[in-house]
Design a protein that fits this description.
The structure holds two protein chains of two kinds. Chain A is of the alpha/beta class. Chain A has 17 helices and nine strands. Chain A folds into three domains: 210 residues, Rossmann fold (3-Layer(aba) Sandwich), CATH 3.40.50; 84 residues, Ubiquitin-like (UB roll) (Roll), CATH 3.10.20.600; 97 residues, NADH-ubiquinone oxidoreductase 51kDa subunit, iron-sulphur binding domain (de novo design (two linked rop proteins)), CATH 1.20.1440. In chain A, strands 6-5-9-7-8 form a five-stranded mixed sheet, with helices on both faces. Chain A has a four-stranded parallel sheet with strand order 3-2-1-4, with helices on both faces. Chain A starts with 18 loop residues before the first helix and ends with a helix. In chain B, a hairpin with a 2-residue loop joins β4 and β5. The chains are: A alpha/beta, B alpha+beta. At the A-B interface, β3, β5, β9 and α13 of A face α2, α4 and α5 of B.
């Protein structure tokens, strides 16, 4: 099923980042319409659309907005999450590069719906140029009264500010992001209380992903019911799929929810690079469990991917051909998580480093018979509610899924190492530190 | 790929930032930053003010941390805890060009390791080191969020994408100073 792009309709349009171009394409009509509506009606429309969070968790956006207590005599805040740090994900950057005003309009409508007069765009520190694009777009929109005081004569005021991160994957988690805006280290908070009640500066706060917010103007303009006809029953709308790795044409593709991974990988991306053979793919950013090639006919919507044993997550599809050593791939992912664990919870801080140690020594030919059991134990003890935020699960799910589908490669590496160790005594220590192996590899 | 060549970083010497102070331009920028956050929550300005300092001096010295703490009414220990938590604040003076090589999975699948070997040999330095002439600092970074254009290297504020050893050489040779 192919349809006209909705979120990325401006691709290929000249000067698509400018306000003039956005107005030409009917921009800010939805905002004008929304500010004339009752905020509760705006939330209802978004609930009707069924749009679910595009950042990874898939929570219905309208429901999230409705948690904000309207009668609390405190300011409310809207935050746009542009931290985009999940490996394999690069859709929010594309949206900002192609159509920043679409994102701004979504932010303005969402802010109006939850009665916020200040909104922050939290953008990862590396996106310097993207932050500049957003700043320019905000200035343009303010100049023409689509932001600022008395927006399009409605009496509603809104200021939008860009807040740059400074290099921390964890700040994509909404409570860590809130801490980071407050000028602290990005350590996730315990929930409850949820940000909708106690968020940034102790006030009710909604955090939405860039792509989620980009859907909002279209929902308001064309109706929630229209949006709900696209995609599947419970995963509505189009989704941006970012495909990277061993494909002919990597990039961001917009398609209705429920498009199969075969259509995405073989159709949009032209199949595996250099005529190779698909070995495995990660369907939703590096934290999602890996799937073997035979699950390629899975439809890409929240329910179907969960049924196939993974997560739709952020829609970051990482494709691997049959030349990839799975022990190496898992080591690479664990390097990321060991580096990015914030250090707050012991199971995640220690577990990610320990798992990396074990997988690294297997890859370097020093594995032991008990290593897979150790990995399984780490994956059990650092996931499913043992940590404050989901980073624990984020590194455990790859471990369990790599072992489930490609355990044979790990076993073979260990068997070879055991055989060698039996020939060349003495036996290596069971748990060794990075330094020992670094020096061995160097020599 | 950017249209104009990446400008070099302004990097202050260790002596110059022992006891720094904010000039008029920085002071007015700090006031502008503070306006974005609620009164009484001036700590929220910490990340943007650190960015401002890094743009001005190239790195965040202990002296800069003290000055920032004093200006925002935060303890030096707190400022240091935040500065060292985030990987992008430089705690030591970098070279004029900071080469940040993405080493996460998608880039690796598309040949980053060859690029890394090439860079290390060409520059004669390892990750975390600066060339003797102070021109290049090489660091490995985690996912830069541009996986569709792998391999990616960020030089100062600009992304360079779809790189090969040859195209990277051309880019490095084209940099000023």
């Amino acid at each position: 099923m192919t349809i006209e792009p909705i979120l990325l309709a401006a691709r290929g349009v000249k000067n698509s980042r400018t306000l003039a171009s956005y107005l030409d394409r009917g921009g800010y009509k939805a905002l004008t319409k929304a500010v004339a509506m009752d905020p509760a009606k705006v939330i209802d429309e978004v609930k009707t659309s069924g749009v679910r969070g595009r950042g990874g968790a898939g929570f219905p956006a309208g429901v999230k907005w409705s948690f904000v207590p309207r009668d609390l005599p405190k300011p409310k805040y809207m935050i746009c999450n542009a931290d985009e740090s999940e490996p394999g994900t690069f859709k929010d950057r594309e949206l900002i590069l192609v159509d920043p005003h679409e994102v701004l309009e979504g932010i303005a409508i969402a802010s109006y719906a939850i009665d916020a007069h200040t909104a922050y765009i939290y953008i990862r520190g590396e996106f310097v140029r993207e932050a500049e694009i957003l700043e320019r777009a905000i200035a343009e929109a303010r100049d023409k009264n689509y932001l600022g005081k008395d927006i399009v004569g409605s009496g509603y005021d809104l200021e939008v500010h860009v807040h740059r991160g400074a290099g921390a994957y964890i700040c994509g988690e909404e409570t860590a992001l809130i801490e980071s805006i407050e000028g602290k280290r990005g350590l996730p908070r315990l929930k409850p209380p949820f940000p909708a009640v106690v968020g940034v500066f102790g006030c009710p706060t909604v955090v939405n992903n860039v792509e989620t917010l980009a859907c909002i103007p279209h929902i308001i303009e064309r109706g929630g019911a229209w949006f709900a006809t696209i995609g599947t029953e419970r995963s509505t709308g189009t989704k941006l799929f970012c495909v990277s790795g061993h494909v002919e044409r990597p990039g961001v593709y917009e398609a209705p929810m429920g498009t199969t991974f075969r259509e995405i990988i073989e159709g949009f991306c032209g199949g595996i690079r250099n005529g190779g053979k698909l070995k495995a793919f990660i369907p939703g950013g590096s934290s999602a469990p890996i799937l073997p090639a035979d699950r390629i006919d899975t439809p890409a919507d929240f329910e179907s991917v969960a049924e196939a044993g993974s997560m739709l997550g952020s829609g970051g599809v990482i494709v691997m051909d049959d030349t990839v050593d799975m022990v190496w791939a898992l080591e690479n992912l664990l390097t990321f998580y060991a580096h990015e664990s914030c250090g707050q919870c012991t199971p995640c801080r220690e577990g990610s480093d320990w798992a990396l140690d074990v997988v690294r020594r297997i890859r370097r030919g020093y594995g032991h018979a008990g290593d897979l059991e150790t990995l399984h134990r780490i994956a059990r003890f650092a996931s499913q509610g043992m940590t404050i935020c989901p980073l624990g699960d984020a590194f455990c799910l790859p471990i369990s899924s790599f072992l489930e589908h490609f355990g044979g490669e790990f076993e073979a590496a260990i068997a070879a190492a055991e055989k060698r160790a039996a020939t060349f005594l003495p036996i290596l220590p069971v748990r060794s530190d990075h330094a020992l192996f670094e020096s061995e590899e160097a020599s | 790929m950017t249209e104009v060549a990446t400008p070099p970083l302004v990097v202050a010497s260790i002596e110059a930032v022992e006891n720094p102070s904010f000039d008029e331009g920085m002071e007015s920028e700090i006031k502008r930053i503070l306006e974005r956050y609620p009164e009484g929550d001036s700590g929220a300005a910490l990340l943007p003010v650190l960015w401002l300092c890094q743009e001005r001096w190239g790195w965040i010295s202990p002296g800069v941390m003290r000055a920032v703490g004093q200006r925002l009414d935060l303890s030096p220990a707190f400022v240091e805890s935040v500065t060292s938590f985030y990987t992008m604040y430089m705690l030591r003076p970098p070279g004029k060009y900071l080469l940040q090589v993405c080493t996460t999975l998608s880039c690796q699948l598309c040949g980053t390791s060859g690029l890394v070997e090439h860079l290390k040999e060409k520059l004669g330095i390892d990750f975390g080191e600066t060339t003797a002439d102070g021109r290049f600092t090489l660091v490995d970074v985690q996912c830069l969020g541009a996986c569709g254009e792998a391999p990616v290297v960020q030089i100062n504020n600009d992304y360079y994408t779809d790189l090969t050893a040859d195209s990277l050489d051309e880019i490095l040779d084209g940099l000023d100073g």
